[in-house]
Design brief:
Layout lengths: L17 E7 L3 E8 L4 E8 L6 H19 L3 E8 L2 E3 L2 E3 L12 H9 L4 E5 H12 L8 E6 L3 E7 L2 E2 L14 E2 L6 E2 H4 L2 H11 L4 H8 L5 H24 L3 E5 L6 H14 L5 E4 L6 H12 L6
Helix pairs in contact: 1-2, 3-9, 5-6, 5-7, 7-8
Length: 306
């Protein structure tokens, strides 16, 4: 896979210098090495094994990063890291899916392990949104809304060519939105996300987790009814997001978003009630949006002139 980071020619890196991207996810982790212009030279994915805790996941990802940099060869000038949650210098908030993740100091860990001075860290969906801005579906759309439906669910807002962080860096954490009733009900992520659909599949005796649930729901019956109810809950929140932001385009990313059925149900629900309908598209980067965003973070961490 070869990707040129559009619009970045003035940032001063050389093609023989290397950029590193790491995308930490609740189910899998992706590590990629790119040249100074952002062309991806090598990348691999490994399982997170979230149940084993944060330390082993971080150690294995950094080990893979070191291996890939050595295999490609060349000076590593910057690294970008995409992580679940709200990243602080001394920890991470709102990242419950991997035990111990809140105690990690990701930038320090990458600097110490790989001896790279420039390390940029951001929320994984914000990184995916940055990739869409520079390379993908939001290059010609403003404002934009990126909705990630994978292990969890979240959103990212883009305005004027930048990703909106929010006052505390928590803009778009819609997984914590109030769902159901009576007040305060539950969290949206507990109703609709990859893990929520895994649990629903178990309850209904449907094999294959979220993917199996989507497949079973292709036909009328209990699985279709149950999945439609969960999609309705997500759609209500996305309608509110669209009414607040009035996006030109909505980009769906993540494994669950890859379901044609789920995408179709969401698009139908938005079209039914929104007075101004945005374009709704699936990211063309498949599972690589956050990784490409991490590489973009690394690219943009390099000074314009050195």
């Amino acid at each position: 896979m070869s990707v040129r980071l559009a619009g970045q020619a003035d940032l001063g890196t050389r093609t023989d210098e290397l950029l590193l991207g790491i995308d930490f996810g609740g189910t899998k982790m992706a590590v990629g090495v790119a040249d100074g212009e952002g062309r991806l030279l090598a990348h691999r994915r490994i399982p997170t094994h979230a149940e084993r805790g944060a330390s082993q996941a971080l150690e294995r990802a950094l080990g893979l990063a070191g291996t890939l940099v050595a295999e490609v060869g060349g000076p590593l000038v910057a690294a970008g890291v995409a992580s679940p949650g709200v990243v602080r210098p001394d920890g991470i908030d709102l990242a419950p899916n991997v035990p111990g993740w809140e105690r990690l100091r990701l930038a320090d860990a990458v600097r110490d392990s790989l001896a790279v001075a420039r390390v940029a860290v951001d929320n994984d969906l914000n990184a995916a949104a940055l990739a869409e801005l520079r390379l993908g579906a939001l290059r010609d759309a403003d404002p934009g809304l990126v909705v990630g439906i994978g292990t969890g669910v979240a959103a990212a807002v883009t305005v004027g060519g930048t990703v909106l962080a929010g006052h505390r860096g928590a803009a778009g954490e819609i997984g914590y939105a109030v769902a159901g009733g009576p007040w305060p009900g539950t969290m949206l992520e507990l109703d609709f996300s990859g893990r929520a659909l895994d649990r629903l599949a178990d309850e209904l005796g449907v094999p294959g987790g979220a993917a199996g649930m989507a497949a079973a729901a292709e036909l009328p019956g209990a699985a279709r009814d149950a999945l439609s109810g969960r999609v309705d809950e997500l759609a209500r929140h996305l309608v509110t997001c669209c009414l607040l932001l009035d996006p030109q385009r909505v980009v769906l990313v993540g494994g669950v978003a890859g379901s044609t059925l789920i995408r179709g149900l969401l698009v139908d629900r938005l079209a039914e009630v929104l007075p101004h309908r945005p374009d709704v598209v699936l990211s063309r980067f498949a599972d690589d949006a956050a990784l490409l965003g991490a590489i973009t973070l690394a690219r943009e961490a390099v000074p314009a002139s050195r």
